[in-house]
Specification:
binds magnesium ion, about 725 residues, two-stranded antiparallel sheet, single chain, nine-stranded mixed sheet, GTP-binding, alpha/beta, binds guanosine-5'-diphosphate, nucleotide-binding, about 50% helix, GTP binding, microtubule binding
Length: about 725
């Protein structure tokens, strides 16, 4: 104990170097890379009851004047860190607590003080603590308007200098068990306890369990708490304070029993130190004077390595080394996780975009990526990009499903009246087929796109065709009778077809709505994929939305024009399927009529039964029909043959013209809108308003770039 006569200040420079250089060289380098800013490195925390001597102990150990015995007790955690720097100074700041409001956060984060050295800090400490209390809103006699008794904010004292070694020491408020009316509440109690737990549960924390020697150790809750979070007892040291206050010999002997491990043994054992007393009298302020006590009985009988602050320091040094070794793997993993996250954040910001050229390059890059994604989506080339895990981006597959639904709905439900089924004609058409899998759409699911509300229909249900087509045709033929030689007039057919196709418009609108929403969703989600910056994304969206809506509207108009042409013009087709269908229908009808007049003849040669009709019977079969009956059957058959052909033609055309040409691959497709050409067409002002970045983003990028570099360096060091 050679240096006992030295002053407090000189204690700081050599005795307080707790960690050996070789062992902690790496940590030291990490600290230089500012890693301590991003993740906790090994640290010391003093915990215990109120007034057990925590702050005093930390002061004795580090030589830094902790706020000690201040207005009853510590009201918030104080963190003292050391950082190597060219210049020597001490800075004081406040780290806002995890639940701080934005306003409070702003207030405490703006607090900053700097002093040149420990003695200046000591001189200014009372004033600084007053400011800190006011800033955190803590109620004290000098700040009676404060709202809080305790705060989760952390007072941070950073000691910088060319010879500072790595060490973080934390002083937390003392645990208390009984609340005091008007001062401490049950809430405060829980809050302080949680704050203490938050620190001691970290495997990188060495717990100094501070126990006043003049109080029965059995009453000290902190030992149980420390044991709970440090089960193996690898990082908990018992530190007995205030031995000078013990007068009775039996009490002293009892404390010696603790140190010797006779009672309530701790894995790492107990140490005994004497801090400065409350009265601050002269002979008390010198460590050597204070520790002369230990030369007396019974203390002098205790092993040297358990008594006095030097012994404690040297044990702490060892322990910090061990904890640091153990912490390395954790630190490594955390560094890697943090690097990944920071890199992702940085990527999300994109390249710097201050000049028009940088902005144009940035936007063109995004647009090119979008076009690339879009082409893959139209080619169903989904293996190219992980983004296609999202079904909404598998655009062409969506469209195919919708088109299948459209075709099915058209075949089954587009007619106002069901046609009469005929043998040999309808059998090959699978009218009752199941709806295509996964496409039983009933409502349009796009509540997030209010901009589309005017354009699309949400209800996707259709009424099934009605029965009674023959009666309905009767009405038509009666109402459209004219002076003609034949029985079926063109206007009868036009009118019948118009009546039979009234649902075409709504079904087509439903189909177009499905497709428009799918395209819109693709563009929306595609932008998220290619542009990580939400601000730019939102601005691009806002800029192109009008043009998108124009494209969707014109597609819808095309579809409606097709509906109009098909349903309102005179029915006509040159498709030979119409004649084929007519002939099939006529043939089938003829057979129906002739069947009652047929004779069955068995061919003896090959045992086949064949039916024959005598030719002279045929005119009478035809004569039996009235004109009206003939007319309505004729109308029905023509209508049916034509409907089938027209519906097929229509479905094809809606897909080709309104969907594929207008919405997907045509020159005016909305998918082509956000392209490199579009970016090139923007003038500098418009470009800046979309791609330009504000100071906040510039700063954030600079911070993240530095952080990523720091983390990369740190990983290299480990
Ligand atoms: P904390 O609430 O646990 O931080 O306790 P403090 O460090 O503020 O100490 C409470 C009071 O006990 C202060 O007045 C200290 O000066 C006094 N104290 C602390 N340690 C000792 C010691 O070893 N001997 C004497 N006599 N007083 C001490
Ligand atoms: Mg204290």
């Amino acid at each position: 104990m050679a240096s006992h006569s030295r002053s407090q200040e000189s204690n700081l420079t050599d005795e307080n170097i707790l960690i050996s250089h070789d062992r902690l060289y790496k940590i030291d380098q990490l600290r230089e890379k500012n890693i301590g800013k991003y993740l906790p490195l090994p640290q010391l925390v003093a915990v215990g009851d109120q007034s057990s001597g925590k702050s005093s102990l930390l002061e004795t150990v580090t030589g830094i004047p902790f706020p000690r015995g201040q207005e009853l007790c510590t009201r918030y955690a104080t963190q003292i860190t050391h950082r190597r720097d060219h210049d020597s100074f001490i800075s004081v700041s406040i780290i806002p607590g995890p639940r701080a409001s934005a306003k409070h956060k702003e207030a405490v984060e703006s607090y900053f003080r700097q002093v040149s050295d420990s003695s200046q800090l000591q001189a200014q400490f009372p004033a600084i603590l007053d400011e800190v209390n006011t800033c955190m809103g803590i109620r004290t006699p000098r700040n009676p308007t404060g709202q809080y008794t305790f705060s989760e904010d952390v007072l941070k004292i950073e000691k910088c200098g060319p010879y500072e070694d790595y060490l973080t020491v934390i002083d937390v408020p003392g645990i208390f068990r009984t609340t005091t009316e008007g001062v401490t509440s049950e809430n405060d109690k829980v809050m302080v306890r949680n704050m203490v737990i938050e620190y001691i549960k970290d495997p990188r924390t060495i717990i100094l369990a501070v126990l006043p020697a003049n109080v029965d150790v059995a009453t000290q809750e902190i030992l149980a708490l420390a044991e709970e979070y440090d089960k193996a007892g690898e990082r908990t040291l018992g530190v007995l304070t205030k031995p000078d206050l013990l007068k009775e010999r039996s009490a002293k002997r009892s404390v010696c029993g603790l140190v010797l491990g006779n009672r309530k043994p701790l894995n790492l054992g107990y140490y005994i130190v004497r801090n400065r007393g409350g009265d601050d009298d002269e002979d008390d302020s010198e460590l050597s004077t204070r520790e002369s006590l230990f030369r007396q009985r019974p203390w002098c009988d205790l092993p040297d390595e358990r008594v006095g602050v030097r012994a404690l320091r040297s044990r702490l040094q060892e322990l910090l080394g061990e904890i640091t070794d153990q912490a390395f793997p954790i630190i490594r993993t955390e560094l890697r996780d943090m690097l990944m996250k920071s890199q992702a954040d940085l990527d999300a910001l994109g390249a710097s975009r201050k000049t028009p050229q940088e902005q144009r390059q940035y936007m063109a890059g995004i647009a090119a990526k979008f076009q690339h994604l879009m082409r893959a989506a139209l080619d169903a080339d989904y293996s190219r990009d992980k983004a296609f895990d999202d079904g909404d981006l598998r655009l062409v597959t969506r469209i195919v499903n919708f088109t299948e639904w459209f075709e099915y709905t058209f075949r089954n439900s587009s007619q106002t009246y069901s046609f009469v089924k005929q043998k040999g004609v309808d059998e090959d058409v699978d009218m009752e087929s199941e709806p295509p899998k996964g496409s039983d759409f009933t409502t349009l699911n796009a509540p997030e796109y209010t901009e589309l509300k005017q354009l699309v229909v949400e209800d996707l249900t259709t009424n099934p065709p009605m029965n009674g087509i023959m009666d309905w045709i009767d009405d038509i033929s009666r109402n459209f009778r004219g002076i003609t030689l034949g029985t079926v007039t063109p206007s009868m057919l036009s009118s019948a077809f118009r009546g039979q196709s009234v649902k075409w418009e709504i079904i087509t609108k439903q189909y177009m709505s499905l497709v428009i929403v799918a395209v819109h969703r693709f563009i929306d989600k595609g932008l998220v994929t290619v542009c990580k910056c939400p601000i730019v994304r939102q601005r691009v969206g806002a800029t192109i939305v009008t043009q998108l809506l124009t494209a969707y509207t014109s597609a819808m108009k095309q579809a409606m024009l097709l509906v109009e042409i098909e349903t309102q013009r005179k029915p006509y087709t040159i498709n030979h399927y119409f004649n084929d269908n007519m002939q099939k229908l006529r043939g089938s009808k003829m057979m129906d009529q002739l069947t009652p007049h047929a004779q069955r003849i068995e061919m003896t040669a090959n045992n086949e039964v064949t039916q024959f009709v005598r030719l002279d019977k045929i005119p009478s079969v035809a004569e039996n029909k009235s004109n009206a009956q003939y007319a309505r059957e004729e109308i029905h058959d023509i209508l049916k043959a034509y409907y089938t052909v027209a519906a097929k033609r229509f479905v094809d055309y809606v897909y080709f013209l309104a969907v594929d040409h207008c919405l997907l691959s045509g020159p005016d497709s909305p998918l082509l809108l956000f392209s490199e050409q579009w970016v090139l067409g923007l003038d500098d002002k418009k470009l800046a308003s979309i791609a330009g970045e504000n100071q906040q983003i510039t700063d954030r990028r600079a911070r993240l770039t530095k952080k990523v570099q720091d983390l990369k360096d740190a990983i290299d060091i480990l």
